[in-house]
Amino acid sequence: MTLETAFMLPVQDAQHSFRRLLKAMSEPGVIVALHQLKRGWQPLNIATTSVLLTLADNDTPVWLSAPLSNDIVSQSLRFHTNAPLVNQPELATFAGNG
Fold first, then answer.
1. What's the pLDDT score for residue 85?
2. Alpha-carbon dihedral of residues 65, 71, 73, 78, nearest 10 degrees?
3. Between the CA of residue 80 and those of 25, 51, 77, what are the distances in Å?
4. Are strands 94-96 and 62-64 parallel, antiparallel or unpaired?
5. How many other β-carbons are positioned within 10 Å of the β-carbon of residue 27?
6. Which of 6, 22, 56, 84 has its CA 20 to 30 A from that of 34?
7. Is residue 90 part of a domain?
8. In a domain? residue 1
9. In the chain, pLDDT over 90 holds for what percent of residues?
10. What is the per-residue pLDDT across 3-51, written as a single tens digit (0 to 9) for each?
């Protein structure tokens, strides 16, 4: 199994990302940086990877389109978040299309 790295300080980095996401969602038009990771899980970018690590858990079904989904992303997502991967976007709480 090949895994990508997650947050170096899982609790602190997830808290920081959550606060940044909360600011972005509560203040439309405000641009925030999510820079706790050195790189995203390719082909996902840093921001998408950070959002998944921060918000996804075992109660958050995730669907990723074919261009975004590969074995490494799937394995890393399952390992780090325990989020179930679904095959149909309408079953997902988080859907990524690229």
1. 96
2. 100
3. 24, 12, 5
4. parallel
5. 10
6. 84
7. yes
8. no
9. 84
10. 888 999 999 999 999 999 999 999 999 999 998 888 899 999 999 999 9
